[in-house]
Here is the input.
Amino acid sequence: MYLSQQTLATLAKLMVGECPPGSNERFSPSRTLRQITEFFREFGERDLHPRSGAPSSLVYTKEKLEKFNGTDKMSLIICKALDFWCEDGFNPEHAAYRLNTDLRRDGYEVIIEERYLRMNGNTAETEPYFVVRSLQWAVVDVPSLVKLSEESIIEHIAKAKKKIDTGDSSGAITSAYTLVEEFLKQLLHKTATTFNENEGDIRALYKLLAEPLHLAPKNDSLESCLKAILEGLQREIGGLFEFANKAGDRHAGKYKPAARHARLAVNAAFTLCEFLLESFQHQRVHKQ
Here is the structure.
């Protein structure tokens, strides 16, 4: 998540409790250098400041925001910076509204959601929290998949989109993989194909499904150009398997994926499932 210098300046001022650029009004409580230092400890920073010669809280905040700019942690920093619901005299919603005037120019916005806490009699108790979402929709639409009755499929699609919106690249990749795994198993059930319910390797699941859907590249009735596409589909499955193992959050990730790579994985998963659904429906119609 990359922010412009104007947005970084506004965010820094809001974080230390100063008036943002172009405003004579404060939107947030003051934070000392010690408080800001503790704030960034949650994001892996371990700075110690001398008693004399230490930077101001604003200067230090700007330095840290520059360091995290362009990383997935930036969205988390924004949400935590606005989390001062219990502070008297300031409304986090007003601060979020002010930040959004700059943030939207960068293709993002802060929104409020409600987190379930507990039931109090017949009333559900919730608490508000902030989420950063992308305004740059770069995820393909999947109307056919959404029409499916299986709630698990719809849930996985929603999770993948939400994690893209909130900058959780590793989580989005994992959701994309889980969607493909669940979808392959759904179609294996529908085609009455025997498989191991505990199988988590999408390469093995796809190999089983390719036969009843006539998607195996070795099919002699297929044109050579179509065989090449289906071979590419197999490689795509293998690529998603390897990518999820290295960059997803199911296991200890071997490297941090970029947002564009997460979108690629999610789009690939959506397109793959859409194609498999159409192939299944085609085979079912021709059997009738």
Q: What stands out?
A: Residues 5-106 form one domain. The first strand starts at residue 108 and ends at 120. The chain has a mean pLDDT of 85.
